[in-house]
Amino acid sequence: MFNSEQGSPPIAVTLTVVKTIRTPRKTPARRPSTRVFNAQAFLDSTGVARRAVAYDAGVVVFTQGDRCKHVMYIRSGTVKLSVLSKTGKEAVVAMLGAGDFFGEGCLAGQRFRIGTATVTTPSTILMIGKRAMVSLLHRQHAMSDRFISHMLARNARIEEDLIDQLFNSSEKRLARALLLLARYGKDDRPVRVVPHLSQDTLAKMVGTTRSRVNFFLNKFRGLGFIQYDGEKPVTINNSLLSVVLHD
Prior knowledge:
Layout: H1 39-45, E1 52-55, E2 60-62, E3 70-84, E4 90-96, E5 101-102, E6 116-129, H2 130-139, H3 141-167, H4 170-181, E7 191-193, H5 199-206, H6 210-222, E8 226-227, E9 235-237, H7 241-245
Antiparallel strand pairs: 1-6, 2-6, 3-4, 3-5, 3-6, 7-9, 8-9
Helix pairs in contact: 2-3, 4-5, 5-6
């Protein structure tokens, strides 16, 4: 029995053992690769590069009405795609550069070329047979993704070109054509140089006359939008964008 004279009663102490459970450390998920697929390096590695053809400026790669046998990839240089009407009027429908495909209509069952491809600067072009291209797209997903991206971008460009022709003035169409030729938005350089093209070719791209192109080029030069002396390639300043954006 507890005796109050003997001091305070003993204190009962309860010990609780807490077991620490260590959770296994999670391995961080791998981030998807941000590397851009290099179509040229891939085509080189598959042996397609052995079918590379060098062209001088002015040489025709294929003519409207030729049979479709190959898809082409521009390794370097520039190519003009044009269409000739029954009345003999020519329209330039696209200017392509390094990294672009063309002639892909054969993959969609196109038997004959609907336009003409002409090299405008010394170029090297890879010639990929229809069957070889189909095989590459089936076996190599990265190549397929790259090609699909190219086709979607081409489709969007065609829609924009149509809207441009329907609703914009020839002055705006020329400004837009120069910006596209300079690959505006492809990099962060403040000044870009357009591949050398004649005023006649620019007129066929825009859908106007050479005299109107000459007038607008001189106007853009006077406003400081471009640097141009009639012989050297046109140098584009970012301020030319104001012509396209201005209502």
